[in-house]
Amino acid sequence: MLRLTDIQLPLDHSDTAIKAAILQKLGIENEELIKFSIFKRSYDARKKTAIVLIYTIDIETADDQKILNRLSGISGISLTPDTNYHFVTHAAGDQFKRPVVIGFGPCGLFVALILAQMGFRPIVLERGKEVRERTKDTWGLWRKRELQPESNVQFGEGGAGTFSDGKLWSQIKDPKHYGRKVLTEFVKAGAPSEIMYVSKPHIGTFRLVKMIEEMRASIETLGGEIRFQQKVTDFDIRNGQVHGLTINENEYLPADHVVLAIGHSARDTFELVHQRGIYVEAKPFSIGFRIEHPQSLIDQARFGPNAGNKILGSADYKLVHHAKNGRSVYSFCMCPGGTVVAAASEPGRVVTNGMSQYSRNERNANSAIVVGISPADYPEHPLAGIDFQRRLESLAYELGGKNYNAPGQLVGDFLAKRASTELGTIIPSYKPGITLCDLADALPAYAIDAIREALPAFDKQIKGFAMNDAIITGVETRTSSPIRIKRNDDNLQSVNTQGLYPAGEGAGYAGGILSAAIDGIKVAEAVALSIQNAIVKS
Fold first, then answer.
1. 116: closest CA among 104, 133, 131?
2. Is the same domain home to 332 and 371?
3. Which of 24, 270, 293, 491 has its CA at a distance of 20 to 30 angstroms from the CA of residue 334?
4. Is the domain of 400 the same as that of 472?
């Protein structure tokens, strides 16, 4: 097959325009084109009155090689690369100790799925509940102010990505096309087929719930086992090798291959890892607020007269500002047509996050506006970033009124350095609710100063971004893991603990659903090859 890139067509092009563009690009007749499919579709909205769609298309002709030879040297025409997933090995028999996966978020899910597909029958230990029970507990915080420390936005089947926009894109390099495998498995589990070709695919929480259940069933059908409410409370490490785990303080599970896919909020497990001598180091992350605007304002700013177009959907944005104090301020986890959600996992603390459904049709747009920080800001010890997060989250709980309300402020008041006392035209979406206040003390002074400088700068890119009635809600602290559980580049095992595979976002090797899932595939392959090598040697 041949791949054509950079096929540009008007936003309102006809159904026959793609085929006509292919024939013109290749200089062939209609009967020479056997079939074609869209590999990717994006858009260029720099000219709001003339937005164009940009296609990458895979085609089959009567003689692909002849056409390729004739058009040699012309850009945008090449052989279609092989993007199919190829397993690195398959289990030979069942004479091996089953691998164990700790955590069932996007990373752990794909570790387990790939291992199961290769015949290695993994055991998954998830501290939280299955996804539907977990959803009920999460709504308990949002509606009744009742936090379940082991079943919430952070913990449970599907991980933190379940209660998000379901974004399925990443800027990581993916030379082996693992991302394609991830999207393929999601479509098999019920995701809309468009995620295979749109430039910024997303799913949304309601669809993710059903998909996760389908993928769990696939793993179990293939011999895998998922155990819920199974919290790892100790590691059996002898002579630099993991030999087993203690679960819920009373059950011992022997294991020679353990994948640590615990997500970015498993703070007690981070502490346990550090206590047991597994190498951990502090890493940078970001802190800030959530900001809400009318989605119509963002649509108009990005798409102009094409705002509301069905193909374009709800507009997003990505903003960066380098402040005078040396800090970088940027938008993060932008949720078009979404809501700001309570994402706490510890009592007496407030954390915000963003979420959208597949339709993205809520009134407000929201994103995090965050400031980058580094271990130089919390130099005490490898886990000091956790202490840093907790202090900010506890302060937010105090400012919110000690009832899981989040502290909030109008942007106009924030910039004017005065407390907010009443809402304007924008109704905040955060549940249980917000308490208006002065957010100046909610973050370190350097972060407040940088955000105050950034908001007017962002307004120059998106008119109305610094509008008086826009709402900021605090605090956003779980942008990424504050630690890295360092691993070797070759076998992906801990640098000082053989048999332990730090993986995904919690270990500091991913950021988001897609990159975490891709890391899960890499780690699953490393585990499978290690098991097979051990069998051969024995």
1. 104
2. yes
3. 270
4. yes
CB atoms under 10 Å from CB of 67, counted, come to: 18
Do residues 305 and 222 share a domain? no
Residue 334, φ and ψ in degrees, nearest 5 = -70, 130
Q: How many domains, in total, are found in the chain?
A: 3
Three-state SS string across 222-240, please? CCCEEEECCCEEEEEEECC
Phi and psi torsions of 353, nearest 5°: -150, 175
116 and 58, same structural domain?
Answer: no
Three-state SS for 409?
strand
β-bridge pairing 123-126 and 77-79: unpaired
Q: Which residues contact 376 (CB under 8 A, 6 or more apart)?
A: none
Query: What is the domain range of residue 318?
Result: 284-476
pTM for the structure as a whole = 0.95
Other Cβ atoms within 10 Å of 433 Cβ, number: 16
Burial class of 79 by CB neighbour count within 10 A (0 to 12, 13 to 18, 19+):
exposed
Spatial separation of the C-alpha atoms in residues 120 and 111, rounded to whole Å? 11
**pLDDT tens string 286-328:** 999 999 999 999 999 999 999 999 999 999 999 999 999 999 9
